[in-house]
Automatic annotation (TrEMBL):
Name of the protein in question: Glutaredoxin domain-containing protein
Keywords for the protein's UniProt record, in alphabetical order: Cytoplasm, Redox-active center
Family matches, as CDD domains: GRX_GRXh_1_2_like
Localization per record: Cytoplasm
Superkingdom as given in the UniProt entry: Eukaryota
Organism in which the protein naturally occurs: Arabis alpina (Alpine rock-cress)
Annotated family: Belongs to the glutaredoxin family. CC-type subfamily.
Subcellular location, principal: cytoplasm
Coiled coil regions, renumbered to chain: none
Pfam families recorded: Glutaredoxin
Domain Glutaredoxin residue range list: 7-69
Gene Ontology CC: cytoplasm
Length: 96
């Protein structure tokens, strides 16, 4: 689910922070693969696996270039310190 895509977001439609992170990537022009855990068949299993990886809360969770970035706090920190765009470029998700 993760290794074949440049950006993967695990999300829930009911989560406002998930909406914020998805909007951030879409505003950059990134086309992330988004898995809505409250809509897919194995959503609960995936959420448990994310928790085992240390993701708390379990949504949103972002992977870039197959690597776990983390949740909303980690993504926003990368954005504020100007590291997110270069990371997206290296993963082939952005061509600015």
């Amino acid at each position: 689910m993760i290794s074949e895509k440049s950006v993967v977001i695990f999300s829930k439609n009911s989560c406002c922070m998930s909406h914020t992170i998805k909007t951030l990537f879409l505003d950059f022009g990134v086309n992330p693969t988004i898995y809505e855990l409250d809509e897919i068949t194995r959503g609960k299993e995936i959420e448990q696996a994310l928790a085992q990886l240390g993701c708390s809360p379990t949504v949103p969770v972002v992977f870039i270039g197959g690597q776990l970035v983390g949740g909303a706090n980690q993504v926003m920190s990368l954005h504020l310190n100007r590291s997110l765009i270069p990371m997206l470029k290296r993963a082939g998700a952005l061509w600015l």
